[in-house]
Amino acid sequence: DQQVKQNSPSLSVQEGRISILNCDYTNSMFDYFLWYKKYPAEGPTFLISISSIKDKNEDGRFTVFLNKSAKHLSLHIVPSQPGDSAVYFCAASPNTDKLIFGTGTRLQVFP
Amino acid sequence: GAVVSQHPSRVICKSGTSVKIECRSLDFQATTMFWYRQFPKKSLMLMATSNEGSKATYEQGVEKDKFLINHASLTLSTLTVTSAHPEDSSFYICSAFRRGKNIQYFGAGTRLSVL
Prior knowledge:
The complex is a heterodimer.
Chain A: E1 4-5, E2 10-14, E3 19-25, E4 32-38, E5 45-51, E6 56-59, E7 62-67, E8 72-77, E9 86-93, E10 100-101, E11 105-110
Parallel strand pairs in A: 2-11
Antiparallel strand pairs in A: 1-3, 3-8, 4-5, 4-9, 6-7, 7-8, 9-10, 9-11
Chain B: E1 4-7, E2 10-13, E3 19-25, E4 32-38, E5 44-51, E6 57-58, E7 67-73, E8 76-81, E9 90-98, E10 103-106, E11 110-114
Parallel strand pairs in B: 2-11
Antiparallel strand pairs in B: 1-3, 3-8, 4-5, 4-9, 5-6, 7-8, 9-10, 9-11
């Protein structure tokens, strides 16, 4: 049972445009959400997080939006750069140290 | 720079041998570390939670006698794949939980190939 879902396995965006990566979850006990970026044969790198008491968190080009009623979060990258090309995982935490990861979305930013 | 170091990055071993993977938190103490496994084009699957000074907590379906975890200090956790078989070949990743920041920081991963 996949508690965290990323329904788009891949996304292709032109450089300079906005990239929007989506994530849905099923467990209402999740109260902390994170986005990680991963290159092949490397460990995930933390990007940005959001607590369930907020609906938006911004860090430079990265903004995460949380819609608790819809159990949905999204990561916006603007402007997108070729170096952003990677696999992006969303993760959710049920008020513990543990993370439940989504299946990932491969982002490709082309010139 | 990296805050979690994982070693080795790649290991090739014969079937039946044991392999140890180390995970170190470099600039913070981690009472909790995690071990994940990633299959090709799949998500990260949590194998176990490593608790400093106590036994690891394994996820359902993960054999604790097969994947031995030791967390003897606040900066080091080890995963030993015992009597490795070809089906154990995978990408193993560790992470360390940094309290206060409430973030898991990941190592670079270990590619295990069992011949």
